[in-house]
Amino acid sequence: MSSENWPLSQDPESPVIISRSLVEDPSNLAFVVLDDDGDWFISDGNEFSEDMEMNKDAFGALPLREAVELIPELAALAGLPTGMAADWDPERRSWLLSSVADSDDDEEDLLVRAARLAAWTHPGSPLEEVQVSTELAEISTDPAAPARAVRQVVREADGSWLLVGFQVPENEDFEVEALEMEHAVTLYPDVALVLSAAPGQVYDRPSADAPWELVEG
User: Which domain of life does the protein's organism represent (predicted)?
Assistant: First the structure.
């Protein structure tokens, strides 16, 4: 893969941790994590244990370039924010995103949180949980898949947030996923324009390139 066609923001020669079984059979792919330092962890479903010998047996290292050649579906995650995980759905050929939970290192977690709070320039907290309609947390590997965009931003009466995509029919029930606010805004930057919404307010727009309109509250 030439440097001109390199899809990810990380250095193609940077090392990644990968399940050894995936080197033999990439169809075992289960999930990936892009940690807060921008390092990739690619798994067949196993996670690190406290037994270092087991970890050595289960995981190895590859240059990111080789990992993408082995698992080209990784290229669809070019815009994945750091601190997120993505579960692979082989039937739908898509990734389902989630915000990574805290690690076992409490001191490191505190430092990461402090840095994220200090860098946040929008109202509210980057760590706040946001509900998003499921398709907003999905990344398809199908190039013909419709573009993802937020149609509606809802600030509930209790102050919580809901983001709804254009693929959700109006006035119909839909499934949601939880993301941290910083991750939601990184994926959908135009949402930042209405983060000053008061509880009970709803912003909507007819198309992804249209301005937000206050429709309730």
Answer: Bacteria
